[in-house]
Each structure stands twice: as structure tokens, then as C-alpha cells.
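quick one, 101 residues, struct below
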Amino acid sequence: MTQVNNGPASLAGSFEAVLQRLEREPVGESSRVLASFASALLNSEAYNLEQIEQLPAVDDRDLCLALFDYCMTAGLTEDERHEAAVAFLPYIEIHAPGTRQ
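---
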């Protein structure tokens, strides 16, 4: 029996939900915060958590909390980290300083 691949595999943990949220609404301040927070977690970078507290949508704050919780409890393999970093790269680039939205 042949297995059919119906697209890319899902990202680990809450990263998939954040990616889907960014796909629905890639621009705007909330999307910038989500993308930059995910990137910071994936790249072991410091992040100003006040930006998350200031998100207007509770759902977006909950997504950030779920990401943090997943990274602190389950963690990512190096392959999962790389896969997520590649998936989030276009959204990081959209919000890079000097980029028009």
C-alpha cells in the first residue's frame, strides 16, 4: 500500500497552532509579537515578555503561553526546532526592521 503525503508534517506542540494563526493573519502588531516570540524560543534568544502582556487578544496571549509551556515541559528535538525555524522564517522576515507591511 502506498502512503500519500498530504502536505508538510505538523510542527511540534503549540508551534503548529501559532503557525496557523500567522497564516490567517500574517501582518499586524500581534502577528509580529507571535512570530518574534516563537523565533526567540526556537533560537534560545532573550525576549521582552511585556510585549506578550500587551497583546489585545486573549487568544494570542494564550498561544504565547502555550509555546512557552511546551518548550519548558516537553522541549524540541533539534530536527523539530529546525523544522519550526524554517516554517516561521517568512513571518520573521515580514516583520524585520525596514520591511514594509
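The helical segments are 15-24, 29-42, 50-53, 58-73, 78-94.
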